[in-house]
Amino acid sequence: MMDRRLLVCVGALFLIFFSTFPSSRALISSPDANPPYPEAISDLKEAIVKGLGFQSEEVKISGFDVRDALVGHAISYEFDLEIDNKVLPLKLLEDVNRWEYVDLPIFQVEQPNGARQENVLVPLSEKKKKSSGDVSPVLSPFQLAGPMEIWIQDANNMRLSLPYDVEAGVLKKVILADGAVVTVKGARSVSLRHPIDLPLPLNQSSNEFASGLVSLAEQLRRASSSSDQESPLLSLRIVGPTSLASTSQSPDNKLKLKRLAPGLVELSSMSKGKTGISSSLSTIGGAATTVITPREFTTMWPITSINGSNPNLLGFEKLLTSVLGPKAQQKGSFKVLKADVSAQTFMKIGFGVERKLKESDLEGLNFPAWRTKPETMRMHFEVLAKVDGEKVVPENVMQVDPIPVEDTIAENVINGNVTMSKLPIIQPPPSPFTL
Fold it and tell me: Span of the secretion signal (predicted)?
């Protein structure tokens, strides 16, 4: 009897203890009800609400769960064209080939003491995600041909191979002489430093195989190769390259290095021909690439690794032709103020918006008499944003249609809400099997 009383007392004590102090599981799962947003996600949320034209007090935002965020890499193209004293910005984005779940540093929640820890909302079953220490995306290796100048940024440990490795110190500027061709690896972005004027009509080449942009690039190369001092060298800025290498591994076709000043060198070809650009084959990543020859324009200067039949190049040429209109076939010129090609990290995440409806919002909507009029409107969106350091910049917000909900109507509503007593009695035909 005493043992039974003791068990009852112990059970009551445990019941009081667990009722007073919640379990550790409840403490861990409590953030799911109101998840704390990292600072970058909070800024993204505010920017989207303002962009959609909603007031923060009249809408309720749900979602932005970083556990559902997908991360991918793509190439972004940004151009500013000046046509007839009008600046036209163009922004193109390649499709992301693969979306993955990645724990980025911006997903970490800021702690009250200023420290940052990993997102506590990620379950242990999802810890197979990629770590936040992934290398930033880079551009594929590409070739540059002179004459031009290259300004290098954020590349203190860059390797220089001509074709043998050369110790040139920290480089800030590299001048490619006419005939010098190098392969750039590990660059994060390439941009135009100074505006350039391009002549019209778009296709002035007599070669029927040369596209409009390739013929424009050839005219620009000839202007840069001339001794006229009024035509400045084409100037590019490259961020974060890991190496500059000669396109040919043969010692007979190596480049010559000339130091002009601390951080400034000039590269010239020892076997420079009359045309200024070699017509031999070069390799990038094991694939053969034909360099521009004077007889047929197969590549685009100064990025000679781009073939004239590249789909991206042809697509941009069609876009430029449609923008110029009739001016594309008339004599004149247009100016390229900005040209930036960069490898970017993008994030895709979904969220919901719940907004209270007013009487004016329901006007013109024919609801059945039996149906309760909605008081709130729920919309689902998906945002594509660019990860820029510690910030997330929205690029595109698209409304997503959820699974449609079918209305179910009771049978008495269909029959006019009549009682069974008013329905006619129907006698079924007799059956010989009925007892």
Answer: 1-26
